[in-house]
Design goal:
InterPro entries: YpzH. It holds the Pfam family YIEGIA_cap. With about 70 residues, the protein is an alpha+beta fold. It has one domain (about 10-65). The chain is about 20% helix and about 30% strand. The chain has one helix and four strands; from the N terminus they run ββαββ. Strands 2-1-4-3 form a four-stranded mixed beta sheet, covered by helices on one side.
């Protein structure tokens, strides 16, 4: 079953980490641009550990840090 339109999501997106400047959007979420894949992975690991949050790797190679 799909989520009802009136239901609030039960997660919060804390950060979006990318190596592509064109995918950085403004808003309430922390958006970070990494110079390369290694820096992107380090940032993702360090921030998720500090915030005690989960990591989702998107098919495009970007990372979402979410709190459930």
């Amino acid at each position: 079953m799909g989520r009802e339109a009136s239901m609030q999501p039960n997660y919060q997106v804390l950060a979006y980490i990318t190596t592509n400047k064109e995918r950085i959007l403004t808003g309430g979420t922390l958006n970070l641009f990494a110079k390369n894949k290694e820096e992107q992975q380090e940032l993702t690991k360090d921030i998720s550990k500090a915030m005690k949050a989960d990591v989702v790797k998107l098919q495009c190679g970007d990372y979402l840090i979410i709190k459930i």
